[in-house]
Amino acid sequence: MEDHPARGRRNVLKALTVGLPGAAWAGRAHGAPQQSPPPDPAGAGRTLRFFNPREAAAMDAIAARLIPADELGPGAKEAGVTYFLDGQLAGAWGAGDQFYRQGPFHEGTPEQGYQLSFTPAEMMRRGLAALDEACRQRDGKPYAELDAGRQDAWLRAMQEDEADFSPLPSAVFFQALLQATIEGFFSDPLYGGNRDMVGWKLVGFPGAYASFSNDIERHGVQWAGQPVSIAMAKPHAARQEDEHG
User: Do residues 115 and 108 lie in contact, with contact meaning Cβ atoms separated by under 8 Å?
Assistant: First the structure.
């Protein structure tokens, strides 16, 4: 398999995943369990469990700017990142079940991670509402209806903590959005994002293969198979057994 000219976008995505400061949402960084996937991770017939239509439209627009579609393939919106995050927020993780939530709450250092009183669900609902309200006041439209240039400008303002979403720091909210978008783009499709494994195909990640014994001695050779999700793992394992007796 030839290495196509995906290097630029791959490097950007790798930089995003490596360069995130201390996890924006401590529950996920410390191993909070993934929630049950939506009933139809492939796409058709999906229903929202947490987001209302306005919030979903804003999240779609944010995902589309953070990891846009381009000549190398679909972006985060097309990969279903909004549905991935919707499923996470609708469950125990969104409710902050793994968070220590006794005050006092003080501003911490980046190394200390998330220090706010909001659960992930509370922060997301509050942050998306604050973003839409700020966009209406400045630009006369909610975030999802702005052109790409203005959407990017708002994301930069949040990243640099120049948007006032008090009492929610906009920089913390931006990092939460960025981290969720990356996770949804690269998560197993079982959890609602990474539709058709587009994130894995982009970076050449094999997924949940039962065995790599055939490839152990293939040093310096690019892996050229098709990725396998958790949902496909059992039939994949059975095929491997059939092939090798």
Answer: yes
Written as one string, the DSSP assignment of 10-39 is HHHHHHHHHH--S-SSHHHHTTPPPPPPPS
Compute how many other C-beta atoms are within 10 angstroms of the C-beta atom of residue 235. 10
- Nearest to 132, CA basis, from 51, 76, 48: 51
CB atoms under 10 Å from CB of 104, counted, come to 5
The whole-model pTM stands at: 0.77
Residue keyed to tokens 């469950």: 91
41, 190 Cβ separation under 8 angstroms: yes
Provide the greatest CA pair distance for the chain.
67
Q: For the segment 57-84, what is each residue's pLDDT rounded down to a tens digit? A: 999 999 999 999 999 899 999 999 999 9
Q: Which of 66, 74, 69 is nearest to 16 (CA)?
A: 66
